[in-house]
Structure formats: C-alpha cells, structure tokens
Design a protein that fits this description.
By secondary structure, the protein is of the alpha/beta class. The chain has five helices and seven strands; from the N terminus they run E-H-E-H-H-E-E-E-E-H-E-H.
Length: about 170
C-alpha cells in the first residue's frame, strides 16, 4: 500500500495516472481508478474535467472515459475503443454492488482524493470500506502464488486525521 499526501497541484495524481497508463500499455494490465462517491466519478466522465485530460494535453495521450454500466466507467485509448479498456473507474461508495466480481486482470487500485476537504461530508467507515474493496478485488492472490494488488492512494494534505490513514496506521 502506498499513500501520497502533499500540497495541491504537485503532480501526485498526474504521476500515478501516467505510471498506470505506461504499465498497462507495456504489460497488458488493467487498473482501477477510485473516487469516494459516485457523483464525483460521474462528473469526471466529462472530457473537460477528466483526470486524464492533463495526460492527453501534456504527453499526447488519447485517453477517454466511457460508461460501462451504472457503477463503472472504462478508461480507453480513443483509437482502441473497441478493444479491452486500460482500466475501470468506480466509486468507493458503490463497490458493494460489485462484490463477487473477478478482478483477475487488474493489478493496481488507484484511490484518488481520499482525504476530503474540510467542507465536504466525510464518508462514514471509509477505512473499512477501502479494506473491503481491496479484499474484493485482490481475492488473496498471494495465497495462490500471485503478486497482490497494489493500493495507491493520493490526496491533498487537508486533514491528516483521516479514517483511511488511521485504518492502516
């Protein structure tokens, strides 16, 4: 598990998304992009506010988000919209709807903006919800001789007294 907490606008999310894009393209892997609630995730499907926009503009990528179903959005390279997506986006608040799914093709979970700003309502039991999400997606891979999924979390340092940080000590 990796936690990156720091000042706003320093490139935490940009760096992780770039890493995930490179890793997925080179290794045919997939990743989950997670936000706390569905409203935030739905907003990000607008190309003008997509978390992938900076990668497209600054690095010449051609990434887009396309809704897969009510709870998941896929990350595609525009030129490969008919192929498998590079990843999937899901809200922590709706992960319980996909319990029992296989995430065998996914290697990483990137939970972005896990520390809410002071004026935003906190998710009750966020730390436990992340543990449940991780167990749902990871499925004890290491017991079957596989590498465990990486959980990568990024946030601004608005409140270090955060349920997720306390859950993982």
């Amino acid at each position: 598990k990796f936690f990156f907490v720091g000042a706003r606008g320093t490139g935490k999310s940009f760096g992780v998304l770039n890493y995930e894009y490179q890793r997925c393209r080179d290794n045919n892997g997939k990743f989950f992009y997670v936000r706390t609630n569905q409203t935030d995730l739905d907003l990000l499907t607008d190309p003008e506010v997509s978390p992938f926009l900076d990668l497209n503009v600054k690095l010449g990528y051609d990434l887009t988000l396309k809704s897969k179903n009510k709870y998941m959005t896929a990350v595609y390279q525009n030129s490969e919209m008919n192929n498998d997506p590079l990843g999937s986006c899901i809200a922590l608040s709706t992960v319980h709807h996909v319990r029992g799914m296989s995430a065998a093709l996914y290697q990483d979970i990137f939970y972005d903006e896990f520390i809410p700003e002071k004026h935003v309502r906190k998710m009750k039991g966020q730390g436990r919800a992340v543990r449940q999400m991780y167990e749902t997606f990871n499925r004890n891979r290491e017991l079957e001789g596989e590498l465990p999924m990486r959980l990568i979390c990024c946030a601004n340092s608005d409140d270090l007294n955060n349920d997720l940080l306390m859950e993982y000590d």
